[in-house]
Amino acid sequence: MTQTRAFRIGEAAELLGVSPDTVRRWIDAGRLPADRGGESGGHRTIAGPDLAAFAATFADTEMRERYGAVSSARNRMRGIVTRVVRDGVMAQVEIQSGPHKIVSLMSREAADELGLEPGVLSVAVVKSTNVLVERIEP
After folding, report:
1. How many CB atoms sit inside 10 A of residue 45's CB?
2. pTM more than 0.70
3. In sequence order, what are the residues at sequence separation of 6 or more whose Cβ sits closer than 8 angstroms to the Cβ of residue 137?
4. SS3 of 75, please?
């Protein structure tokens, strides 16, 4: 059995897509449990299971508050359009969402109707039955 990992505030902020100050405020308000462990040099850390539980709740709340609707697609990534390549029938749209590059192929008509050009704020919605998972060792 593997040992549960603790995350520093900066790591938790990056995983949640918020600032470290926001994570600190959540900790101070009691929304997110944290400890000052000996191995962390007195810094506050968040246990992996606690962060996972908070992240799941946070994602559901954010989706409802930001987008006003619930969808069967759980993967919604806000970003900025960085590139659009159009041909006669199709368009390739690239969106940068934090460190993630998302590429979508759609009809040219759809890209034109949405007014997709570099600099446009967008939300990529992903629904897939094939998701690969890789484990990152600490």
Report:
1. 21
2. no
3. none
4. strand
